[in-house]
Batch of 2 targets.
Target 1
Amino acid sequence: MATSTRLGNAVVVGAGMAGLTAARALADRFDSVTVVDRDRLPDAAVPRRGASQGAHGHVLLAAGERALEELFPGLHDELLQAGATQFDPGLDLRMYRYGAAFNPAPSTLRLLSQTRPLLELTVRRRVVAMPGVTFLTETAVSALEGADGRVAGVRLDDGTVLPADLTVDCTGRGSRSDRWLAALGMPAPESVEVRVGVGYATRILRRRPGDVEGAQALFVLPAPPEEKGIGVALPIEGERWLVGVGGWHGEFPPADEAAFIEHARRLPHPMIADLLDRAEPISGVVGFQYPANRRRRFERLRRVPAGYVASGDSICSFNPIYGQGMTCAALEALALGRVLDRHGDTSAAMTRDFYRAAARVLSTPWRFATGGDFAYPETAGRRPLGIDLVNWYVRQIQLAAQVSADVQEAFLAVQHLVSPPWILWTPVMMGKVLRAARRPRPTS
């Protein structure tokens, strides 16, 4: 519940999913919220320059969908009406890894599949309509304003100063927070990188009934370290498929039609290539490259400024193959609201409390992403202690999930951040995993 005391003015820098969800949380708690973005924000579900991955596949984890529904009640139904597809990831997602397909098994989870531009547009329209919220588009922020340990607003490129009791940096992976804070004599956080050299290419196909028998989405994953290629097909609005192929450490195609098809044919299962053979392409091929996971450890700072927090990719940007970024941004927005309610101010103590809450949000996704990436010896970065043993057991979990509905349900719940990781490490579950991992598995 929002605090009954309004906290003044807030500025959110960045109008992506992190900025929009943060603005929604702040709108209940501040007299005014100004969202600043460099882009001209389109009034249609089309990719925009500032969202570099907008043309590619995006998946909201179940926890992210629940967080968005809490922030924007009725959003789920609104997206369905706009053409999104709902599916059960245990039953309707055909997934292949480690030489076998996962047996379809009903789960308690339901996911929505749509393009990132449709999701962002739908959320942005909700935020724009909120009392007290203003958008400044085609406007860049050049610096933070402040002194004596408090950020007091932002300076725009034209020299205009926007005063703020709270500034939220949602400018993403390229955030200039280190430089901005240093200019005010405030410490910048330690930055941790795990280099993965990921890339992928995407194109849109026309979707017709019967394109894929018995499934609504496709996912082909590699068996590391020997295999590096990945492929995905997601149903999106407008009766279309979004198909992406790529991989780790340079194992991805250029934005070229022939290379795109050839990469799909080299994947360890032909389901993506088969779909490309039967469905009509209606777009060109668009490429994207992502060099490294990056996390700024704000929660470790001994001294943090009042009146300023970073959120979303400005704190942590993950290997996008794992589909965790938007979910974490939404969960951080909810955490920001709770922390503001608890403190009732924008003090340094509130900032520190928020970063601790954000670190709890990021803990499991960061371990998932970097742990999976360290399955490849080429991955560079600080290697977690015991990661080889953890990755061995995670592989056993996935082998077991291919044949055991119980293990699959538990694995999906942890993967989608609705259950804590420890449920996979109890003695009872470990026994189920190790027994099921030795059972014969489907090969189709």
Note: The mean pLDDT is 95.
Target 2
Amino acid sequence: MGGEKSFNVPRVSRAQILNAYKAGPDAVVSLIEYLQEQHRSTIDQLLEIIDKLTARIESLEEKSNTDSHNSNKPPSSDGFHKRIHSRRTPSGKKPGGQEGHEGTTLSMVKHPDHIEVHSVFRCVHCGNSLKDQKAKGYEKRQVFDLPPVEVEVHEHRAEVKRCARCGKPTIAEFPEGVTHKAQYGNRINAWVSYLRNYGLLPYERLSELFQDLVGLNISTGTLANIDRRCSAGLEKTVESIKEALKGRAVIGCDETGIRINGKLHWMHSASTEDLTYYAWHPRRGNAATDEIGILPEYHGIAVHDNRKSYFLYQCRHALCNAHHIRELEFVAEQFNQSWAQKMINLLLYSKDAVEKAKAAGRKRIALSERSKIEEWYEQLIAEGTRANPPPPRNASSPPKRGRRKRSRAANLLERLREHSEETLRFALDFRVPFDNNLAERDLRMMKVQQKISGTFRSAEGASTFCRIRSYISTMRKQGIRVIDALNSLLDGRPLLTPTLQRS
């Protein structure tokens, strides 16, 4: 039975029955009572096994029926038989650029860098020579291309002069940062940091790229040292990003698994539309969040995906409704419970009401609309409660210790009931997003990094990546070109936007 308890139904021989009969009525009664008790025990064992097998079958069915559209699984786990589920309504427009759309077609420039004239020597119509005839005009075409990339070697020579008075030599000072007999310049260092931390290339491939494109044989150890220098120059800047997040009205929080030196760790992030902060930790819960140090000092609204450890902090909370919709999809499909689909409709209706109010320039939805949404929500919770009554207790079996196991539908319903305010906060406070997609997008690059480059080999490497990536993501959100931000950093002047300067 696959590890289940074995049992034997007692068998009574003819001789045993006759002996009981001869012994008198009391012996017959005792034999029958014994058989009844043994059969009752056997039936209880059978029922227990049936319950376990039923639960196992339900668990396997749930697992096989979940994908990215009705659970928190990533789309990459859907496999080749991926089902396409989209909530977007058709726009009715044709594919491609629409009428009136300002295109980005490559355009000719007035002052090209190089001009090459192609002469015509003979008439293509009659064959007459045109060699000595002046051109009446030109038909122009321009080719945009990269010039050959070659490494320039800039030699610094510091004068050495001997004093006529004391006879001792004096050497001129080299520019700041020029400290070795031969070293790579800041532009190459910026390229390294860009391609490693923004392009997410592993060091081995990055070394090959420089060899192929510019003929430089940069070792992987040198590449790692360049990253370490970038990280060291960002310590104060990234701390400013962290402090700025503490003062924001709304932040998105999320975490994902990463591997460092072959062991599972967790990458945590805190995000806004213009700031990103990353930090890794061996743990996922509040021990990590305490050590990272943002939420313990935060007093705004934290958007997250309902991990219990987030609720330990005194800030206000908002839950990600993209997660809710996926889980409600599962309940509607797997358990055929209509309240789940109605709850999806309510959430999307509320989202649409908020978007219309924003488009109209209003700062909140109408009071009547708000009351309608809250009343509708309560009705659906009541409907869901009727569809998910608590499981009946078996009076014949002793009560089990601990919390009774419930279905996924019942667990989701309880969350929506207990956190109704956090679920609908986006409809009551327009600063709060409908979902936590911003934080999830910021963390997605961490998964891409591991798919391309593999795991982090050391804690130092993970910390270096977190610090540089925090800077890159923040600069990009604020409209600054990543390569410009890195060039400024390596020139000893990491960019501080007005937001970070105030921090």
Note: The radius of gyration is 35 Å.
